[in-house]
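Risk register update: the risk of archive-format incompatibility is retired. Evidence:
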Amino acid sequence: AVDGATEAARSAADMVLTSPGLSVIYDAVVESRKIFARLRAYVLYRLAATIQIVLVLSIMIYAYEDTLPALYVILLALLNDVTMLPIASDRACPSPWPEIPSMPSILVASLLYGVLGTAQTLLFYEFQPEWFAGDGTTKYRDAATYLQISIAIELLIFSCRTPGFALLGLCGESRPSLALLVSVLGGNALVSVAAGFGDRLHVIHRLAWRDIGWIWVYDLA
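Archived output:
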């Protein structure tokens, strides 16, 4: 029923336009496609992050006989959930074509992201003693690996929310909202500070600030 219709017409209609004209239908379609884009980005991110965490932890246990401390795993899950809350109000570009949910494409994309992220982390884990030896202990190696995977997974959202090159999604209409940007970078800064002051905070084993900087470079590259 259009705006100004009789009560009988409103009661019988499946949809009631509250403003004059048909522009409200266009606005509803645009907003629904933005919502779909946000949901797709979050589902893709969540699946990819879960695949990466499960594969990395499993390979470390069975291939290297090394396990990350339980606290690191809890921090991974907690920070990933908290920092992703702003995605509900994130900027999104509506698709010019009708959106059709396709779980196979989302699963394939998430698997690709997850496997690539796993390869990145395992490469870091393998060569960490040569690149960032630190104090040479297993605790240092585990802390460095945790920081690497934590930062990498947080930054993954910027790749999942844009279909093209991730850096192109940081500007223009598809740029992330300020809340999402602050949340992700703030979460990464938090774990970096916790690692840098590990001898005082006693949450993460202390890492050298130089190594923390190189881990950031490694993940951004």
